[in-house]
Design goal:
This protein is an alpha/beta fold. The protein contains 11 helices and 11 strands. The strands form 2 sheets. It has a 6-stranded mixed β-sheet with strand order 1-3-2-4-5-6, with helices on both faces. A 5-stranded antiparallel β-sheet has the order 8-7-11-10-9. The protein starts with 6 loop residues before the first strand and ends with a helix.
Length: 315
Amino acid sequence: MTRVDAFSAAAPAAPGASTPEPVRRVILVVDDALDTLRMLCDALAGEGYVVLVARDADEALARFDVTVPDGVLLDAVMPGIDGFALCRHLKATPEWSHVPVVFMTGLSETEQILQGFASGGVDYVVKPLRIPEVLARLATHVHNARAARLAREAVDVAGMGVVVLDGQGRVAWRSPQATRWLGDAFGAETADADGRAWLQKAHASGEAHIRLPDGRALQARHMGAGGLSEAMLLLRMGPAQAHAAPPRQPDVPLTPRETEVLAWLAKGKTNRDIADILGMSPRTVNKHLEHIFEKLGVETRSAATAVAGRLLGPD
């Protein structure tokens, strides 16, 4: 039985044709079954894809070292490192994390399906494979991933970075620019832990700043939901003086928590907004405002906002 070629190409263009060929997407198929590899190579090549194949996790990583594919069809159960562990490794590597992974599995139990999604897969197909279904699902995910990647890279070109946090506050995706800046701010060894804590702080409070040793300052601002249970943060880098310092304590005897509530009130936030930002109930915000109004000698929100501008300094 002959070894499956590492590359499979579509039919060549007719001699003398001058029309430039469209950019062909690269798909990596990872499976230890030769029959499956041959079947998928033929089907994918017929759709105009360039196909790479690997029979285990080590070969798959070797393919990634050569070129980053546009999508991966990955067998969940393989000898040695299984597909779930390989997918987690791909998603933990910033340069590869954007590549959509579609699992191929004969395991239809809910636990195995959930394990595939938890490891970073975007979809799954059940063996024996239905080729039209595989091609349709793969085309959709490759198209969506490419559109998202181009949009995020455009943000980098504009001089900003993007970070997406999942529902547990973990970094689900970060643009190349954001990766570089977080490394500058927290160092290669601490970027994952300390950087994640700082990003979670920005998510909770709306924004966060950190000053770098070289005089620059990195700002993270929460821009809202980026997807289901996800939060999108926009990163900017600039001179340290371009970013506001945290509000200083006013001369009147406000507690630190009352100072925070007053600072967000001065920024035009509603009671519910302040509650969400500071992790308290709207009722608790109302109680803080009652004490603030009494201490400031004011009776309205607009009056408190005016006084806050003088007490807390410029924003």
